[in-house]
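Write out the bound-state structure for zinc ion.
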Amino acid sequence: MATRKTITIRRPDDWHLHLRDGDMLAAVAPCTAADFARAIVMPNLVPPVVRGADAARYRERILAALPPDTAFTPLMTLYLAQTTDPDDVAAAAASGLISAVKLYPAGATTNSESGVRDIADVTAVLERMADIGLPLLVHGEVTDPDVDIFDREAVFIDRVLDPLRQRLPALRIVLEHVTTQDAVDFVRNSDAGLAATITPHHLIINRNHLFAGGIRPHYYCLPIAKRERHRVALRDAATSGDPRFFLGTDSAPHLDALKETACGCAGVFNVTNALSCVAQVFDDDDALDRLEAFVSLNGPAFYGVPVNEASITLVRHDTPVAFAPSLATNDGPLTVFDPGMALFWHAAPQTAQRPA
Ligand code: DOR
Ligand code: ZN
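---
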């Protein structure tokens, strides 16, 4: 039961975000900048952001999509391809242009076709990253069609992640958007250098929500939501204060027309209510005193960057906050994540923080 009406924390960051490009970028980037100071930007564009020069151009497009003087810093990543050049990665890291490299197993998810087919093929890149301390961000699912979709994360840990950690213990790794108790346990039982992001939606839905009364395309994302005991494990990890777990929204916008179709795209668009969802989860679990760690402190500590100087005040309203159910883009509407529960928390508008 909530006993406080406001909570002021350091301005949060989003450690896993899809901003896309073009009109979609223009529609969603301001939503992220409204609540987050920085975001780790995923590189799975078409074509993907493989080389440093690609990331530099993408960064310019992101900044151009925001109103001038917006206080938002995109943290760029490169897409690990079979062809990735270790020298190019090292140069992009040394210049401060990139914060990490993303591993997509080829075929695992949206725009992953140019990803890695066999992790042994990219050993030289991974060794260089270990040398220079550049984190590897991992989409942790095997692509073997014989492995049940609900088991792909756990099998990835056994077949790929655990052997990689043993072979290259110096490589810093973030296991992205974890969805299972197995992943939580693996991170908790690991030595330093392994962390995990958790999404708002995986804290709230389990796999039943995908089929509640009919098929629910807006809850379909990858890794797919798992059974209830896994959701409970994720909540426990997120609200524990353990510095190895931090927020990555994995907001992954796809136009409604591409989700509400016979073969809909994977991805949940959640940025406009992400902080409200997470605050509600922490409130419901009596963990508001650990909210700041999850959304604002643990991520910077892992990435070795300063926490944000600015702060944000979240207000608990007496009645549920109304959120727009969709966002308009030039190409059509984009449905916002529906948590299926009342949200009472909302970031106070900036103007409300000015002295009267
Ligand atoms: O659901 C997802 N959507 N999972 C991913 O890994 C990629 C993302 C996207 O880019 O749409
Ligand atoms: Zn993602």
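---
Confidence is low (pLDDT under 50) at residues 351-356.
The domain at 6-351 is CATH 3.20.20.140 (TIM Barrel).
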